[in-house]
Amino acid sequence: MPYVLISTQIRLETGPTMVGDEYSDPAIMTYLGARKTTMLGNNFSEYHVDDPPRLVLDKLEKLGYRVVSMTGVGQTLVWCLHKETIESHT
Question: Looking at the Swiss-Prot or TrEMBL record, what is one Pfam family this protein matches (predicted)?
Answer without folding.
Answer: GFRP
